[in-house]
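[INFO] parsing input record for Protein O-mannosyl-transferase 1
[DEBUG] input buffer:
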Amino acid sequence: VGSKKQGRPGQTFDRMLGFLKKPVVVTAEINLSLVALTVVGLMSRLWGLSYPRAVVFDEVYYGQFVSLYMKRIFFVDDSGPPLGHMLLALGGYLGGFDGNFLWNRIGAEYSTNVPVCSLRFLPALAGALCIPLAYQILVELRFSHCAALGAALLILLENSLITQSRFMLLESILIFFILLAVLSYLKFYNLQRHRVKYMGLFTYMLLLVIAGLHFWHMLGDQNLSNVSLVCHFLARGLTLLIIPVATYLSFFYVHLTLLYRSGPHDQIMTSAFQASLEGGLARITQGQPLEVAYGSQITLRNVLGKPMQCWLHSHTNTYPIRYENGRGSSHQQQVTCYPFKDVNNWWIVKDPGMQQLVVSNPPRPVRHGHIVQLVHGITTRYLNTHDVAAPLSPHSQEVSCYIDYNISMPAQNLWRVEIVNRESDTDVWKTILSEVRFVHVNTSAVLKLSGASLPEWGYRQLEVVGEKLSKGYHQSMVWNVEEHRYGKSQEQKEREVELHSPTRMDISKNLSFMAKFTELQWKILTLKNEDTEHKYSSSALDWITMDTNIAYWLHPTSGAQIHLLGNVCTWASANVAAVVYTCLSLWYLIRRRRKIYDIPEDAWQLWVSAGQICVGGWVVNYLPFFLMEKTLFLYHYLPALTFQILLIPIVLQHLSDHLCRYSDQIIDGIWIKL
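[DEBUG] output buffer:
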């Protein structure tokens, strides 16, 4: 017994030695065909990437944003979320680009400080990786190796995709992430099945619909318990909602963290957003008093920011006694909205019950619902409106600064402050942060920017009116205090000197990330650049037949050119495949309605799944362009084309596996009868 007890540890030790004596072997399956295709794809996208060493088409557009990233300067681009721009900037960063290049002309030669290969590398890499992604998507759809190989070859050889991916452009990056999103969901779905995705937005919505359909079918599966169904639902919610939203927010967080300096696009953002950036407005507003009080000296910016940012303004000039159309005016002092910083933009918040124009000690803050008078700082006349038609908006009231002509037109200069974004009815009016409406006490008209440009007598400044129909509110009726100081001078001459001097107070304000994200996202969605006709612009209908092209670059001396053109055979085949798929699907649906099943059930499900991905991907990436009011180019069609290309081998395999075999069976039957 004793010897056995002593032998057990020894036996264990011998086993350990035996394990160490054997080599550790790791086996792996390598698809050499896919590796070869990927290598060839990398060569086709990366070879000679620095040629031409000149600005190619939209590189003149995206390069500006790369330079702004390098200099940490804030910008807004309405083309979509910032991920693509950040990836282009990452290429510039890795190449040591300092952002110093003037992106002002297509064909301009790059200076020596511009790392051309580095800037073009990531789009080229993304374009090359679309080849194995196409292969894997067809594999996950349970099509054959030949069909998957055919899809990868078609993506590899499509020259429009090659051309687009070899330059500092975003389409190849967009297509890569669209295909990656589709593949990720297919792998997730197949994993779940075995165990029991701006234009990218449209693909994401498609995946949500497909996931919903899949889960709907699961609800009818009696083999799945309630707990299992809940787990499936939570898994889909996590992978398709929570993780994507968190990832999307992280892109904006990095974007806003990097771009902390004031830049050329600040003016379209709110005063609060501008004040959060280093330089620019922040240099003026930093340390201003937070709470607006009686006696405060303020400038009022209209929140709408259209047709341009502007501030409530007045000057000594008066409205003409009679306008060109024959209507008369009050001949009072003009009130406008002026798109530039000016001393005539300053107003003093006055208590109607007191004469002083300085802030008391302690200050008496103005709250929501309080009645105030707004005194023009330089001319000391009161903001006024009355039942006189505005110069360009006759259905609205004229807004003026009151001049007493000793006629039967009394001053009507009382305004009620309404804080639109208040949290309670006792909120204090705050600098920059509060968005306010001014409601005229006598007529209930709301101070509003009409947006119309006044004639020469108004110096082409923007018209301000009293809007009598004030149900609800529009941003044109909302104002915020941008610059603010506590007035200290009661005498007019001293006050004018005070109005010309900068503020120096000691209070700071910062916006939260979510507030900045919400505002920036809304600007991206609503910002409309002026659409101009371009010699290479096209309509969505032109893309299907490839009845258009784009000249990307022309060598100034040799005449060498780069054009964005599609492969005629591929585009025609893709169109035929889409038509065949649609016709066959309608045929099958009609026949199945009559209980005639031409193909097995598993083949039908495979056919439907392929259509959901490929036809659905083409539809959601193509049809929205018919609703868009923007200048369109051929490259906008490339994401939709990619899905259509994937459909070619799918249709060919289906025809080979079923219709050709079915025809052979019919012929064999005829021969037997003969």
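[INFO] The two ends are 87 Å apart (CA to CA).
[INFO] shutting down worker
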